[in-house]
Amino acid sequence: MAEEFVNIEVNGVPVKARKGEMIIRVTDANGAYVPRFCYHDKLSIAANCRMCLVEVEKAPKPLPACATPVAEGMKIFTQSQKATGAQRATMEFLLINHPLDCPICDQGGECELQDLAVGFGRDISRFSERKRVVKDESLGPLVSTDMTRCIQCTRCIRFTQEIAGIQELGMVGRGENSSVRAFVERTVDHELSGNIIDLCPVGALNSKPFRFMARAWEMVAHPLVSPHDGVGTNLFGHVLRGKLMRVVPRDNEAINETWIADRDRFSYEGVYSADRVGAPLLREGGSWTQVSWESALAVAVDGLRRHGDRIGALGSASATTEELYLLNRLTRGLGSSNIDHRLRMRDFSDQASDALHPNLGMRIADVDHLNGLLIIGANLRREVPVLAHRVRKAALAGAAVVFCNPAKFEYRFPVAAYLKSPPAAQITDLAAVLAAVADKTGTTVPAHLAALSSSAKVGEEHQAAAAALLSGPKRAVWLGALALRHPQYADLRALAGAIAQLAGATLAELAEGGNAAGAYLAGCVPHREAGGRALAAAGQNAAQMLGSPLKAYILFGGVEPEADSLSPGALKALAEAELVVAITPYMTEQLRHVAHVVLPIGTFAETSGTYVNLEGLWQSFTAAARGFGESRPGWKVLRVLGTELGIEGFAYQSSEEVREELRRLCASGLPPPWAGSRAVSAPATAAQTVDVPMYQVDAVVRRAPSLQRTAEGRNAPAVY
Amino acid sequence: MSSIRDKYADKFNLNLFESLHLPDSWTLDTYRKIGGYQIWEKILAGGFTQEQIIDQVKASGLRGRGGAGFPTGMKWSFMPRTSPIQKYVVCNSDESEPGTCHDRDILRFNPHALIEGMAIGGYAMNATVGYNYIRGEVLGEPVPRFEAALEEAYAAGLLGKNIRGSGITFDLHTFVGAGAYICGEETALLDSLEGKQGKPRFKPPFPANFGLYGKPTTINNTQSFASVPAILRKGAEWFAGLGPKNAGGTNIFSVSGHVNNPGNFELPMGVPFRDLLEIAGGVWKGRKLKAVIPGGSSVPVVPAELIMNVNMDYDSMKTTGSSIGSAAVIVMDETTCMVRVLERVSRFYMSESCGQCTPCREGTGWMNRLLKRILAGHGRREELSLLVDVANRIEGHTICALGDAAAWPVQSFMKHYRHEFEYMIDHGGRSIVESQGLAA
After folding, report:
1. Tell me: the pLDDT tens digits for B296-351?
2. B226, B146 Cβ separation under 8 angstroms
3. Is B45 exposed, middle or buried (0-12, 13-18, 19+ CB in 10 A)?
4. ipTM score here?
5. pLDDT cut 90: percent of chain A above it
6. How far does the CA of residue B197 sit from the closest CA of chain A (Å)?
7. Nearby residues of A124 by Cβ (< 8 Å), 6 or more positions away
8. Residue among B180, B366, B399 minimizing CB distance to A127
């Protein structure tokens, strides 16, 4: 459909605008600022604050710019006497019952009301009546409330309705007694709810953990990238005198729009947890002593050199690409290929056919435009909240979304079909869907899956799932973390891959951690070199390393085997090793028993580095916060270890140098799609997969006390 | 008194209350006696096209009786009646404008005229479903009467699906509101009807395009719908000829306040106020008239000397700076303290503001508190300008007309009776009427 344009005038300047577009979008695009409170780009129009009233020629009254569509010949005046008169009138009304407690309000300095009051308010109030006082409500451990400051713009309410999809807030009461309330005895629990803090134009909703911690203007904003999932959510870390004080979203339409998950927002609390290590530690006899970097490194170097090819390295999937690349070089330099980051995976049998790195096969923003989506083994809202929001957008726009999960998870959008069956039966389910897809597309099931597929009983639900996936031209099949943790992941992937192939869909693996893609590219896998070339002889994978003890281990980046791996004997294997070098920000009770040397490093906020997200995008950042105590960025510790061990080419001057070296080894662009041909026979009878709670996925988030106090934070891992 | 009654003997109850003199005027049988459902049956038999009906209503000069006075026929013509999607007609019987009490009497005494009017409207606009949104406080008589009438109409085969094999479908439902004034605003009414909080929607889009459940919807007042059958029965010319230019037909004037004989009087539009006052028995207790609010509490007040020379129609009333509004005539005698009246009126708008948009939510409370303080003897002279300024800053800046409705009384009271406010401020809360020895 061709777009129609109209000719209008904004403050006397002729402007072309899309027909039917709201005035405020046109004025914004043309640099004529109109003040607003209730209007927000991503939310529906409420037109209730009346701050954006502008003069339109021939209109008897000033009109709200946010809710008035442009029409041919319209003449708009944003700064005429009539317009500013109306705006000033609104400002006066907004301020009469506002407490004006800016000096004790966390919003002070970044408050839309405060900012606009400078331009549109008067110096002295004419209001000499009593001000309104509104009772506060507990919205849970994340969002603080000072409802007396509320200006009833309803942005938060519209957010919970329209973006979160579950109305957690609403307007109660009438007239001047209207106030924003949660449901009786309910808190705000949605995984994106923290965004109402940013949406709130005043200090009514603020960050509870950040309350009274710093003033906005004292802090410096540093761009960061979220380490918790593969989306690569863009963040700002706000830093006060070297300390990370809070995290807020950094707009990026192509990735996270303007939203971030609560996990991204509040995990910073974990950076400064009580068990942070500020100095190298050495176990001598049964006790730990603080030692100099030199002594600690000497012990580590000496031990690692002694064990050479009998060492195993476990890297965190949330470590930076540079760190994981150096970890890879170090391990390989010692003669070992025992290196992995896939700590929660259990089935590595088809790893040779892995894609270059786990990936989405498309741009994250393109998820919005999918027509058919089959999601296998994913508690999507918990695993990748921002991506789940994209899926919701797609579903609301008409996409048919199908889940194949071991449990019924709640989704706030229409789900076309939901195949709920125990992990073992998921194989049969997928075989049936494959048969249905082949039937509907008139294609043939690949030979290596033909037997299984033809023996599958195709039920109505499988037909529905296949039909949904095929409902439009843009299709995708996703494998989530529950699938990745499945004991027969290779089989699930073979079936998913075949379904994708027959349906013409893009196959994606939503690997865990903020940098799984980077870990693959960095060669932090036992079967591949950096850049992705296959090794002739694969080393031990994470499960093998933790299954039977090696002589020595390197645990890198806050890896906590008891929490990060699903191998039951992990701690036992480590305890039997002769040397465990823990390169980590945290000293845990378990490490006290198994480790020998602890080398303290920085978290995601204290190091420069790069994360590669699931669309293959490299996002680099510099250190936002000063290192904790004597801790050093992980790549520097690895560099020194490498140099001391005499491994060639370890004299890097910067993390950028490390990155560029790796980049030269990697092909650019999206990797070729997965193309395996694994034969799948009959499904196993007893398979289990584990749902790791959202706030337990990595060391940093596990240490964020406010997240742990949420309803979600109280959940224990679920075994299906 | 009898002389004025004689003078108007043939002008009472020409349309809406035509059957009032008959026993059980609310029954189907009685309604049929005055020609009820003739038009509807003619329509069912294919005797009217939709265009004919809309043209007739246009020609009759019928204007919306809810207060705004928008031409009904024109409103009907805005409906995209040829589009295939579901359309609705909704009757606004959420009569809550202070002083107004005639719609409930239509429900009590002539509910079938409303049913027939809505059915005709539904047919004319291709709407197969209608709702009558009735104010919650009138549960006593009006709601049961209307429901009973609805049952009668269904039993007589006048409503339903494919009525009498005509291919015409019209289902009519009653909906009882919860008593919020704001739900009388048409878009708030739609929200309330949908089960939400009654809060006005911003326009555009207008209900004719995006109304109930997002479908094209026409909302008319009870009187407007109930006037339609007679217009078609007796002709648009007859209706238009009842009143002056720009104001066809009859109107039910709800006269209340300081009169000897308050009540609802159905009279042709354009009746001189002087006569209407006399019909209502004149000012009580032999007192002098001080002021009149001629169209429900929202419209500007008119001092006695201005109103005695105008007629009760749109154009004539306009000369006083006020409007005929909902035709609720509130009469005040010379003992009335205008400060107290305004405080009471402003308290109403403060309580009834939905709280959605800023000027009305914050401004109505501000005005009321200022007035309360003046009454308590703590006002300051300069605050009178502030009061007017606050009203001016609400007017025209809100989503719906409640903001204007709250502002107009303040502006008009201050325009005509500022000296009373000044007197009270200067005398520590003592009213000017007390000083004149007039206080009741």
Report:
1. 999 999 999 999 999 999 999 999 999 999 999 999 999 999 999 999 999 999 99
2. no
3. exposed
4. 0.94
5. 92
6. 9
7. none
8. B366
